[in-house]
Amino acid sequence: MKLNVNGIEREIDSPLLTPLLFVLREELGITSPKAGCQQGGCGACTVLIEGEPRRSCLVPVAAVNGAGVTTLEGIGTAEHLAPIQQAFVHHYGMQCGFCTPGILLAAHAYIEGGGGDDKRAISEALAGHVCRCTGYVKILAAVSAAARGDSFDLTMTTGTPTTTFVAGVTE
Amino acid sequence: MTGGVLDVVIPTTPEEAVAAFGEGDGITVLAGGTIVMPQITYGRLKPDRVLMLGRSGLDKITREGGTVTIGAAVPVSALEELDEPLATASRHVGADREIRAQATVGGNLCSGPGAETPRGDLQAPLIVLGARVRSTGKGGERTDSVEDFLAGGAAGRLVLDVAYDEVDRKTAYHAVWRPHTHHYSILAVAATKTGDELRIAATGAGPYGVRLTSVEQSGSPEDALKDVDPQDDALASAWYRSTVLPKLVARALDELA
Amino acid sequence: MKAVGARLPRYDGTAHVTGRTVFVDDVRVPGTLWAKALRSPVHHADITGLDTSKAEAMKGVHAVITHADVPLLEYGHLSALGIPADEPLLAKEGVRYKGQPIALVAAEDEETAMEAVAAIEVEFAEKPALFDIRLALDPDAPTVHHWGNIYPHFEGPMDRRQIRKGDIDWAFDHADLIVEGVYRPAAIEHCPLETQVCQVVPEADGRLTIYTCSQALYFSMGVVASHLQVPLNKLKLVGGTVGGGFGGKVDTASETMTALLAMKAARPVKWRWTREEEFLCSTTRAAWHMEIADAVTSDGWILGRKMLTLHDSGAYARFSPYGVTKHSFHHTGAYTIPNLSFDGYVVFTNRTPSTAMRGFGVTSVSFAVETHMNRIAELLDMDPFEIRLKNANRIGDTSPNGVVYTDPSTVQTIHVMAEEVGHELPADYRTMTRGPRDGELLPEHLLAQVGDPEAH
Question: What does pTM read for this prediction?
């Protein structure tokens, strides 16, 4: 069977009932979707199937024969970050990064689908995604910012030191 | 991971699905996969033969002659546009929209009791809509009321579709959900009043959705406890469900009054 | 000092948002075998039989390990802090918690590994189990640990962490009111999104490369080296990004066993816990039982505190004595109480062993202390901000274990809190500072506890 993954057509050898998550991670070496629970309960495995967010740990690969699959690697690179990726960097929308691939793809799909700067709607769109590190506040801020179309300066912004630690040393 | 499976059948028409299912012996039905896939992943289910319904053409919603027919493979998310109380209940299946887009109506009817979470949120709304389940299996095709289908056991049946009539009715739906977006229904009561006819049903108060016939006869919320068999599970205890159920029933009856 | 006050992007931000961050499970080494564990299905039992032969003979199985394969079966991770070893890496004589690992298998794929685990034959003679720390000293309580149900190796040796300061009897004799409270925070599961995972690669030069999710690389390195009885330079631990730990990935819970499998199989081995293992078998924050009785005056001085703490260590000691020790140092919290009688016990049960979690040992006592302060304020009909400011730690006050405070921030913190919530303080409370006590803030009963902040 075949899958189109991040724009590249791939031939799939895995058995038909293999969860898409493991086809991506083990057969194709695409490791951004994560095995957080393998029960559909955490959202760390979410990928886009024909642009729609789905739990790849619950999808038998035979069910997506011929479909277009997008993983986080497919929406932007370090050289060209997508707006949602920039928003997360700027707003510190992640800490350990394990939930980030699933959340970014769900957020990306939300915005591509016309979702706006509405915390309640964003929360519902991301309802399936568990984050144990951030407390969600900065994640919502990042998605709001991207939904608004904010632009981001990701360079280090120097500030005025507020404390002098050693007398006589100035920058 | 699932290399032990010998046979995966992917029918492309309802007739092929019916033929492949036969009498249902030794075959596991996989529609959305939200319940079956974790069981396979964790080694609790080792099917020899799997029938995948994703391309079987059982995913249509049709309206004809005042009847709405929902194919077994229709995703739960598609029910948001349909009649109450089905619409509201569907929005709370499985805690989030990614699950709802993959879970199916058929799977929800055949979900069986879960030790981790009560499943089958759509069962009570379908019961009170007077819905009929068309299924195939041993003895061929059959149509049952939803409550009879559930009581008889979904094992050995392949659900084809479920249908209800569009009539003027008042509806009510009261449920206990955890207070955040990633939530599961713990307990729910659905009710309709069509003319003088009251129908009321509950999910989360037993292994599957049940019609509260005692309440329909007496009008007394406490009588709900005669019709149910609440269980302890990861979300709530049997005591909690027994205590809260009559209150949800009372709210539903008040709303319909 | 360019960085101070600057807005810096996270150094790992780009990698996280492009999905390129490498977690242990993302490491790909050709020829890696899958590990699975046989875990105890019962809470408390003797092991009367263990036969791994069917698993070993199974096609696709490369290695099976039990206690017999471990060079040093019991090693105390905090033996440097005086906590002796009590826990076998793999169960030998018996099991003391449901989920305790008994054997591990390395196989070609996950399915084979699961089948091999199912083929291991183990027999148990079940024993009654203890789950409630309050019952641990009852005459009919089951004994769950070979040291007894109470950890006996605090310095002394003593069976408790004990603090005595001042004259507690004087305090209770001079109180206008005794305020009591019982506080019982439950165990908490860390639930990191990344489950416990480890990959071990036997290198050509005889060393082992261990990719680990451990939060404490050097600490885990020492633990692995000790169990394996190898010099440290035989091991190379590779950490990096931990997918959430919160204190739950300091137990070296997977590295040693995975290393043993890799050595025995002479192949790379990966062990990734399932979410169910993570919930049911991984360590948790401990459950605690705390009883506080404070001797207070009607004008809001806390003259003395009696406190009893029971800490649920679960089946083994792990880091619990260390946690209870820290807990004891903080049992007055942000406040100065001159007369103290504290007893803290590490209690063994048949629950999953408990471990560190953010604020190890101290979040429990903070919760109890702060709740108790509110209780005191309510009973004395005093403002909860004012009673805190009055008793707040100041420069020169001493902690329960005699440390002189040189830089306590209680007063400023409470002032800021009052301002943030719009709580008006009377002038004399608004002008309080953290400076050394004097005048009305230094009644006679606080004199004896004052120390010299300059003397270190």
Answer: 0.93
